[in-house]
TrEMBL record:
Its cofactor is pyridoxal 5'-phosphate. NCBIfam families: DAPAT_plant. Residues 1-19 form the signal peptide. The keyword Lipid metabolism does not apply. Residues 72-437 form the Aminotransferase class I/classII large domain. The keyword Signal applies. GO terms for molecular function: pyridoxal phosphate binding; transaminase activity. Keywords: Aminotransferase, Pyridoxal phosphate, Signal, Transferase. This is Aminotransferase class I/classII large domain-containing protein.
């Protein structure tokens, strides 16, 4: 039986066939209006758009109705860096670009896994040689790598996520077809293990008390709660993953914000982690590279599937098939980030954002709110009072009354309801002005 465009004339339930036989039972469409391709059913399961564009949409809708407020808007919403790239790191990017203008320096395609020197430097400078350069895959960012991780695992695995959590873990699991649909009353997807993270458990999940999942996503310092997991907590989750045969995907994109003594910056500081964990990471928040795009994923050679095959080999297969390597210019910037001067510049940038976080935290505490995070992370997670309604209501109220964009906790999953996330990635004067407006409105 053949489906011919010639034959596609749909009159609802009646099919008029021209030139080829089309069975009545076949779904026939008017190809002047539609293609004949079924929508991927997994996308239909997603509830609404991705969180951050949705925030942007609401902000723009507000500005359309109130164009006179355009200059007043302050964003404490998406975690997007605002400080310029410092001198030494910038010189790396410039050098990378300049090389392309010379015969000797020109390079075309590079290794899909990243330049050997950058992989070595990441292993040495950021991991103190706890990992091997061959285990590092340089990429265009942690978010993109999370999707690649999902492609490696495929559609049959069960995933566990912290609740609340960075929405990419859940949304990509849905896109991959790992889940059922979303239950409208709980706002949870079927076949995802939601691991409650609350002030009572220090925002660290009790995975042992929950059903087993194949893949466990854990982010520390955490987005959105700002909690940084202790060595004991990470040891516990590594051990339980080992016991249950789960693979831990550790998101360390905010690692350099850790300033508390003894708090691990990488999962590989935990004994046994190389048998159970992989780590995604990125220069975005380290060095102001949100627009530059450079990240990496560490897949240890010890990490194996049930059949003994290496997870690293499959990750490599995804990278070599569907990625041509990070931009050579940008990798040159990455190398500069890892020089001692670059490391110092990163530390200064982070000091600046942590000072912003302190101002935000103290302002909200001064207004009587219970506040979490903001000490080892750039996010301040504020517990809302019941009188403020749901977190989307609080978001709208603050946008309308203060012209300050925040992120409602519910955007990070049902466990985020009742909280509001404030990002410290804003210019200092904007943070101070936002705090002034919040103080006037919320006092
Ligand atoms: C955020 O939570 O604001 C994110 O960091 C944005 C992103 O990196 O995708």
């Amino acid at each position: 039986m053949k489906f011919s465009p010639l034959s596609v004339v749909s009159l609802g339930f009646v099919t008029v066939s021209v030139g080829a036989f089309v069975p009545k039972s076949q779904n026939v469409v008017d190809t002047k209006l539609y293609s004949g391709v079924e929508r991927n059913e997994n996308f239909a399961k997603l509830s609404g758009g991705y969180l951050f564009p949705e925030i942007g949409r609401r902000r723009n809708a507000y500005l359309e109705d109130n164009p006179e407020m355009a200059d007043k808007i302050i964003s404490l919403g998406i975690g997007d860096t605002t400080k310029p790239i410092p001198e030494h790191i910038l010189s790396g990017l410039v050098e990378g670009a300049k090389k392309l203008g010379t015969t000797e320096g020109y390079s075309g395609y590079g290794a899909e896994q990243g330049q050997a020197l950058l992989r070595e430097k990441i292993a040495k400078v950021l991991y103190n040689d706890l990992i091997d350069p061959s285990e590092v895959f340089v990429s265009d960012g942690a978010k993109c790598d999370i999707m690649r991780v999902q492609q490696v695992f495929g559609s049959k695995v069960t995933s566990a996520v912290q609740d609340p959590s960075y929405p990419v873990y859940v949304d990509t699991s849905v896109m991959m077809g790992q889940t059922g649909s979303q239950d409208e009353s709980t706002m949870q997807y079927d076949n995802i293990v939601y691991m409650p993270c609350t002030p009572e458990n220090g925002f660290f999940p009790d995975y042992a008390s929950l059903p087993r999942a194949d893949v466990v996503y854990l982010c520390s310092p955490n987005n959105p709660t700002g909690a940084a997991a202790t060595k004991e907590q990470l040891t516990e989750i590594v051990n339980i993953c080992k016991e249950r045969g789960s693979i831990l995907v550790f998101d360390a994109a905010y690692a350099p914000f850790i300033r508390s003594e003894g708090v691990p910056k990488s999962i590989f500081e935990i004994e046994g982690a190389k048998d159970v964990a992989m780590e995604v990471n990125s220069f975005s928040k380290y060095a102001g590279f949100t627009g530059v795009r450079l990240g990496w994923t560490v897949v240890p050679s010890n990490l194996k599937f049930k059949d003994g095959s290496l997870v690293r080999d499959d990750f490599n297969r995804v990278m070599t098939t569907a990625f041509n390597g990070a931009s050579n210019i940008v990798q040159s910037g990455g190398l500069a980030c890892l020089d001692p001067e670059g490391q110092k510049e990163i530390s200064n940038l982070i000091d600046y954002y942590l000072e912003n976080a302190k101002i935000l935290r103290e302002t909200m505490e001064g207004l009587g709110f219970t506040v979490h995070g903001g000490t080892d992370a750039p996010y301040v997670f504020v517990e809302l009072s019941e009188s403020m309604g749901g977190s989307w209501d609080a978001f709208s109220m603050i946008l309308e009354k203060c012209q300050v964009v925040t992120i409602p906790g519910a955007g990070f999953g049902p466990g985020g309801e009742g909280f509001l996330r404030l990002s410290a990635f804003a210019p200092r004067d904007s943070v101070i002005e936002a705090c002034k407006r919040l103080s006037e409105e919320l006092k």
